[in-house]
Specification:
158 residues, alpha+beta, 4-stranded mixed β-sheet, 3-stranded antiparallel β-sheet, 6 helices, 9 strands, 33% strand, elongated
């Protein structure tokens, strides 16, 4: 039986409240706090300036059985219908952050990935073997060590 878009959608939507909690707990990675300049300090009564570096967040939650077996960062590279894939969209610059989570016995394991750092390091441009999903789509896998080596993971709970 082929998994439908609706089944994928329903699965992902069940996890959204937990993903929001994880993002809130890691908000320090999505903002910057800077010391105010002399003008701000003396004329505006400002000592610190908080800026939201934020942006769009892609989210993926993998089922518990895959979280125990696979600890890699996978991105869909071929769709069933020949549409743009997640890999295409990420290469085009979409998604500033990627919250990638695995269901676990106690909640979720996760990594928060800086996608600008991934793109700058050329990680999405590396020719990687595609793996097949049961639904006819394909994906590439990126080892977490490679993401760490390039400073792309800003937070993790594994």
């Amino acid at each position: 039986m082929s998994t439908t878009f609706q089944e994928y959608w329903d699965y992902s939507q069940r996890h959204i409240p937990a993903m929001i909690r994880i993002l809130r707990a890691n908000a320090m990675h999505l903002i910057s706090v800077e010391i105010a300049d002399e003008h701000q300090d003396t004329k505006e009564s400002t000592d610190l300036v908080v800026r939201v570096t934020g942006g769009e967040v892609a989210v993926r939650t993998r089922r518990k059985q895959y979280g125990k077996q696979y600890r890699d960062f996978t991105i869909r590279s071929k769709s069933r219908c020949g549409q743009k894939t997640e890999l295409d969209k990420l290469r085009e610059g979409f998604a500033r952050w990627y919250l990638y989570a695995w269901e676990a016995d106690y909640g979720y394991d996760y990594i928060l990935v800086d996608m600008d750092a991934v793109r700058s390091a050329g990680i999405l441009d590396v020719n990687r073997p595609e793996r097949c999903n049961r639904d006819g789509t394909r994906f590439i896998a990126i080892d977490l060590a490679e993401l760490r080596q390039h400073g792309c993971i800003v937070a993790e709970l594994l």
